[in-house]
Amino acid sequence: MVLEMQKYFKYFQKNLFNPGRLNYLILYVTSQCNSSCRTCFLHESLNADNDLSLAEYQRISEKLGNFSVLLLSGGEPFLRKDLREICALFIQRNHVDTLSIPTNGLLTDEIVKVTDALAANFPRTVVSVNPSLDGMREYHDRLRGVAGCFDRVIETIRALERIKEKHRNVQIIVNSVVQSDNIEELRRLCDYLKSFNLDYQAFEPLRGDCRDENLKLPSDRDMKDLHQMIAAARKCRARNVFEKMVVTGSLRYIQKIKEDALIGKNWPVACAAGKSIAVIYPDGGAALCELRPVAGNLREHDYDLPAILLQVSGQSGLREQQTMCSGCTHICFLNASLARDWKTMFKIPFYYFKK
Ligand code: SF4
Ligand code: SF4
């Protein structure tokens, strides 16, 4: 338990004393996609032919120091044939300790092959694979525009469960996009997934300008109900009381902020976008976050992400960003922002004990 306490305080210490240092990178490794989801907010830029090459990623990596989390997105990241090499590059050169790979789950064999290899070659790195499911079979296939999609994702999850038995550093997190018309579907899905060996099912409200303009955000009430349901279904694997407090307290605090955001409340912390977290698109465009305009293209700035971020985030203060972005529920940015806030260290235990 002492070890867990040390880890907790070290985590905050690292972020509190280095507030401007990049610690989380969202890397869109390809614009290619084999799905056509109605919820997609990148639909206009998909399937272009100008992805950065591995050699270009090497140049980006050289300009970055060590950082903790690399989220590889797309398009569909597993369509990228050199995904393994890209991950290896950032693990070896930048000492990334967590890889997070959201996927539509269609390429079962490739997903299994890459996950298995990464987990075996880098046992100290967490390899978190996040297949998407937005409802049960008929609904999910319709929303994703791919017949047989649901069954394929389930096959992928089952295959990942076998990989997880081999490697302790593999995590399976199912991502579900929540909008006003799939609340019942998600209730059924959550129930269905209880028999799977998942680490978590994450509910994220719709974001950005999605392909289907008729889709609407869920209400805060629906979001609250889903959060309660997932908390009840969750198998907490905490090894001691302190770890349980951290996991449960963080979850409750983050859920509360997201529910508040849906009724237009600001986050209790300034957003870390462009400071400790940033985005790189497949063509080299760099942005503070996905909901803000591209700040510059790495191909035109000597592949120097920190230089682009410094230029842009220096122009707009954190306080200004916080006011301008009320309603934001982007979990990656919320996590990164809370990690830089000393009050969060005490709010987590508070939310654990709060009834
Ligand atoms: S949401 Fe993801 S999987 Fe779906 S079309 Fe967009 S990029 Fe592809
Ligand atoms: S609050 Fe949300 S929209 Fe605003 S900068 Fe942060 S991540 Fe982007």
Which structural class matches the secondary elements?
A: alpha/beta
- CATH class equals Alpha Beta
* N-end to C-end Cα span: 24 Å
- What is the overall pLDDT average? 91
Count of DSSP strands = 9
CATH T-level fold name? TIM Barrel
Low-confidence stretches: none
Which oligomeric form is depicted?
A: single chain
Shape: globular
Spatial ordering of strands, largest sheet: 6-5-4-3-2-1-7-8-9
Say which molecules are bound, naming each kind only once.
iron/sulfur cluster
Domains, number: 1
CATH-defined architecture: Alpha-Beta Barrel
How would you explain this protein's 3D organization?
This protein has 355 residues and is of the alpha/beta class. The protein has a single domain (2-219, 271-340), classed as Aldolase class I (TIM Barrel). The chain has 13 helices and 9 strands. It has helices at residues 2-16, 54-63, 83-94, 108-121, 137-144, 149-166, 183-192, 220-233, 241-262, 305-315, 318-324, 331-338, 342-353; strands at 24-28, 69-73, 98-103, 126-131, 170-178, 200-205, 277-280, 285-287, 296-297. A 9-stranded mixed sheet has the order 6-5-4-3-2-1-7-8-9, with helices on both faces. Helix 9 (241-262) packs across helix 13 (342-353). The longest helix has 22 residues, at 241-262. The protein is globular and about 50 Å long. The two termini are 24 Å apart. The mean pLDDT is 91. The structure holds iron/sulfur cluster (2 copies). The site of one iron/sulfur cluster (SF4) has 11 residues, from loops.
